[in-house]
Write a structure and sequence with these properties.
This protein has 101 residues and is α+β, with helices and mostly antiparallel strands. The chain has one domain. The protein has a five-stranded antiparallel β-sheet.
Length: 101
């Protein structure tokens, strides 16, 4: 790591069916107090990336009581957007699929 670089902290990672016919390698990470979500399709060149602002990160982590496994269980892809489904709220993390051929 170089001076001035900040390492992201991976909080949870697993292969998951996000609703469809593909398995995605899903990662939840923290960088500078922001949640970063990534979902890489294991069988196609398709990746969804999400960078959630600090204020929304705090709200999401409070709702999930900092339980990253529960948060992972609530991540889905709907209409090429990554969504976090919560018992009383739905957060649309406005991310488009990138790298699709």
């Amino acid at each position: 790591m170089r001076i001035g670089e900040t390492k992201k902290i991976v909080m949870c990672q697993k292969n998951k069916d996000l609703g469809g016919n593909a398995i995605y390698n899903v990662e939840i990470a923290l960088l500078h107090g922001r949640l970063q979500l990534s979902a890489h399709n294991n069988s196609a060149p398709e990746t969804i990336l999400v960078d959630i602002p600090n204020d929304k990160t705090k709200q999401i982590l409070q709702i999930f009581e900092n339980n990253y496994d529960l948060l992972m269980d609530k991540i889905q892809i709907v209409d090429n957007k990554l969504m976090i489904l919560a018992p009383t709220n739905v957060f649309k993390c406005c991310a488009e699929v990138v790298g699709r051929n």
